[in-house]
Fold:
Amino acid sequence: MAARSIASLTVSFGLVAIPVKLYSATRSTGSIHFNLLHKKDGSRLKQQYICQKEGVVVGRDEIVKGYEFAKDQYVMFTPEEIKALEEAGTKSVDIHEFVPLESVDPVYFNTTYYLAPDKGGAKPYTLFATALRESKRCAVGRWATRGREYVVIVRPMENALVLHQLHFAPEVVPVADLEVEDTPVRDAELKLAQQLIDQQTAAGFDPTAYKDEVKARIEAAIQKKVEGEQITLAEPQPAAQGNVVDLMEALRASLKRNTQVRGETARLGERKPPKRVQKKSAASSRKASSR
Structure:
């Protein structure tokens, strides 16, 4: 099924304006959602807002938003006041600079969209994507939507452009807050660790190689329940222990295990040549048919 555009934008840098269409880069794969039910009779439950002071149900038309500036003290805002404070949505992604893509740490990535050329934008779109690809840079800009302003990057992906909304710096926890100690390692340990990495290195990341096993397990359990069957609960696996082990021995054991697994996989993967079907001679065929 063809992708559907969710908005029309203009990517602007300098005096160049590229009309583009915006597409969601991800899609729901039918995430499993459970409803809240009354255990007694299985009926659906509905959410209500209760006034803590009066103990009565409050309708949506009586609800306003408030900010708690001190303990149990709020300032209230009407929907009109909040709307006036929000950033007006724009239909333009304004590019401010170009940086190497590797300088943008993935921790800043938030939501991803695809950009495709809109009417009249095919040539500048292709030119922009090609220039970014060959310069090995991405474009950094700003885009306002849904009441917020975002810092975004635009980068090439195959023959298309991708737009990433980024987190602002205060939204990302600094690594320094983790207080990770710089512990020295021995050359022998580093060599074994690199060998282990080399042993499990692939040519590239293949997302299709990883399946959502938890979703499949839940779907199977749901189907059994629908068919009136009981499900068997698996025994919980013990949590991994954080015991300090001999690092060198652990690395050697990992290398040995991987070698054994690879050898077993290769052995099972060997296929014997098919047996040849010997043609019967004419005499043998006549003899068999006479019987």
About this structure: The domain at 7-25+87-171 is CATH 2.40.290.10 (Ku70; Chain: A; Domain 2). The longest helix spans residues 247-269. The two ends are 61 Å apart (CA to CA). Residues 102 and 243 are 36 Å apart (CA to CA).
